[in-house]
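New to this. Please check both lines:
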Amino acid sequence: MRRKSKSPEDLSIGELRRLLMEKRRNVRQERLDHYRRTGRVIQLASNQPAELEINPVIETLEDEELAPVKERSAKKTVAERFLLGVEIIAVLGLIGIILSGFGILRDLNAEFAAALEQPTMTPTPLVMAVVLPSGHTPPDTAGNTRPNEAEIPDHLRPMVQSIKDLPIPPSSPEQAIRIQIPALNVDAPIVQGDGWEQLKKGVGQHIGSPHPGDVGNLVLSAHNDVYGEIFRYLDQLQPGDEILIFTQQRQYAYIVSGTQVVEPTQVEVMAPTSNPTTTLISCYPYLKDTQRIVVFANLKN
């Protein structure tokens, strides 16, 4: 099998030098044979080794012929180094892109997890009143009455004005809508807010108190001698009596635990509780309205 010849670029400097020397030797030998055939040759006294017959001119020619090969090899080396540098830069850039992608993916996962998290729901704080709701002057013979502003201490009047026009909460299925007290034959609607205008329409839920069944103090108030006299007989309730409060979704039963008569400024009876309770408030006594009667009840299991 014929051995595949190498291209000049694949040869080493030593191989190129030997190849050139052999080529020059063959050319010189052919020239000498030609001179010998034509009778123009001079017989040399001794036959010197072929390597010693190469004169400086041949060596110069060898260097001149090897120069392009050396130049091409140098250019090839520079190009290879340049390509190697480009590859290294590309690899480093790819590593940077991958690391950046991991950072972006981590941020996206964090944003997605944050979007899935539900905010911690905190109960609406109870707006503490200056005086207990439902206060009014005793009705005259024609049934006329008005809010009893004399109950409000002078130094607290600016506070009353600041909480007078609190916004009414939007309607929701969990809101109280009706109250029944079987022992008193009470069946009345519940409205949001316990201001003067709201209590003309039924039983008012104090803004900020919880929904029925929720932990906290559900504060409800109504008049005892005007606008339907809904809470006229609260003083007749006994411990163990049932108070039913309805929402759009279900009914909640509260069991009376006690009754208390307090001054209009004893707003601590409206304070939040750590368990589901309800507090009913109305003016007292009947047709005098100088105090309040308060009924306490706990949610039935």
About this structure: The first strand starts at residue 178 and ends at 181. The first helix runs from residue 13 to 37. DSSP finds three helices and eight strands in the chain. The chain has a mean pLDDT of 83.
